[in-house]
Design brief:
By secondary structure, the protein is α/β, with parallel strands linked by helices. The chain folds into 3 domains: 169 residues, FAD/NAD(P)-binding domain; 129 residues, FAD/NAD(P)-binding domain (3-Layer(bba) Sandwich), CATH 3.50.50.60; 77 residues, 2-Layer Sandwich (Enolase-like, domain 1), CATH 3.30.390. It has 10 helices and 26 strands. The protein has a 5-stranded parallel β-sheet with strand order 3-2-1-7-20, with helices on one face. Helix 1 packs parallel to helix 8. The radius of gyration is 22 Å and the shape is globular. GO terms for molecular function: oxidoreductase activity, acting on NAD(P)H.
Length: 406
């Protein structure tokens, strides 16, 4: 069906790599499909790691995106666990750390991102964790028993989700954020304030503008947090949630165009016509930034896989992310609102409310919902259709918003 493409290689076996492989086979690709994975467990979801897996309510095997039978049917030439070390675009080859070289007709880079650790020496300290893999979640869960003490460095989404899971399981939690508010890089101040209150109500000790912190492990295995040489706390475990680093170095070293992530067009093509990228590692073609979201990784990978087979499929989807914390399902649609945006609040109660941001003409720019999935579904339609929205009706909870059709 695709006679000119007999060898496809995918680097990465996370959400993007998994859905790309699945789509290639669904679209009728029958050639050799090689997948390179740095982990032994492949094709699994990561959002539950900071929630159900860390809480002990979901077994790692339940994370699989596809059944064993479905994965077997994909007839994949697996290379795991092993790192890809270099790409040679001229010879169309990928080199692996074990000495193997794989030839390709088309290559997909789906290497994602990794945890950013401000001090590299922290990586070797016992009881200091990042949370990116299933192994990370299992090791951390073993340390977080009821009554234990946890410190979290970073007030972004991972840090807040870990805090919520740990508090729900009876762990004492302190969270240290260097900025003056939570999730400052990705949300407006009103949502930061909501998150701050939510976690403080649950007993999290949140310290903002905390300054630089040093970590020292005692002979007994406790971790001491120091600021300018002064002891702040002694805890049983530390989670470093200081953001992410985009794993774009393979593409950069191969000469591909990079701006933090790999630059791609709407079909997922990099600056080399036979090399594509999807997921965290790819700069979103319309937003101009890397998007760390399972929905982006999945949907972009599906579009890119079709385009790799010569069936052009544009990817221009809006940003959509979600987070579960305590009893709150928080969803965010669109890019962060700017200060010129008009804020409309729809308030049912402290834990069911929405922040709606409109442009000067009354069209939706972005939206945050707390426990209101129905409104988020409407918001996606409004954003796509460019619907003009009356602010007064949006704020009035007695108004049926279904009448505001695109």
């Amino acid at each position: 069906m695709h006679p000119t493409i007999s060898r496809i290689v995918i680097i990465g076996a996370g959400q993007a790599g998994a859905w790309a492989a699945h789509t290639l086979r669904q679209q009728g690709y029958q050639g050799r499909l090689s997948v390179i994975s740095a982990e032994e467990q492949v094709f699994y979801e990561r959002p539950p790691l900071s929630k159900q897996v860390l809480a002990g309510t979901m077994a790692p095997a339940a994370l699989q995106l596809f059944s064993d039978e479905a994965i077997t049917a994909m007839d994949i030439d697996w290379h795991k666990p092993v790192l890809a070390t270099a790409i040679n675009p001229q010879q169309r080859q990928v080199s692996l750390a074990n000495g193997v070289t794989l030839a390709y007709d088309k290559l997909l880079i789906a290497t994602g991102s990794r945890a950013r650790v401000p001090v590299r020496d922290w990586l070797g300290l016992p009881h200091v964790f990042t949370l990116r893999t299933v192994e990370d979640a299992i090791r951390l869960r073993e340390r977080l028993q009821p009554g234990k003490r946890l410190a979290i460095l970073g007030g972004g989404w991972i840090g807040l989700e870990v805090a919520a899971t740990a508090r729900t399981n009876g762990v004492a939690v302190s969270l240290f954020e260097q900025a003056s508010r939570l999730c400052a890089r990705s949300v407006r101040p009103e949502l930061s304030a909501f998150l701050m209150k939510l976690h403080q109500e649950q007993g999290v000790d949140v310290q903002l503008a905390c300054g630089a912190i040093d970590l020292v492990v005692t002979d007994g295995g406790a971790v001491r947090l120091l600021r300018e040489g002064q002891l702040l706390q002694e805890v049983d475990a530390v989670v470093v949630g200081a953001g992410a680093e985009i794993a774009s170095e393979l593409g950069r070293d191969a000469g591909l165009a990079v701006n933090n992530g790999l630059l791609v067009d709407e079909f997922g093509r990099t600056s080399h016509p036979d090399i594509y990228a999807a997921g965290d590692v790819a700069v979103h073609p319309t937003l101009g930034m890397c998007v760390q979201s399972w929905a982006n990784a999945q949907n972009q990978a599906i579009s890119v896989a079709k385009s790799m087979l010569g069936e052009p499929c544009e990817y221009r989807e809006a940003l959509w992310i979600w987070s579960d914390q305590y009893d709150c399902n928080i969803q965010i649609l669109g890019t962060p609102a700017n200060h010129a945006s008009r804020l409309v609040e729809r308030y049912y109660g402290e834990h069911q409310r929405s922040f709606i941001y409109l442009d000067a003409e009354g069209r939706l720019e972005s939206m945050v919902t707390v426990n209101d999935a129905r409104l988020m579904k409407l918001g996606k339609r409004w954003l796509k259709g460019g619907t003009l929205l009356p602010a007064g009706q949006l704020a009035d909870i007695t108004v049926n918003l279904m009448t505001l059709k695109p």
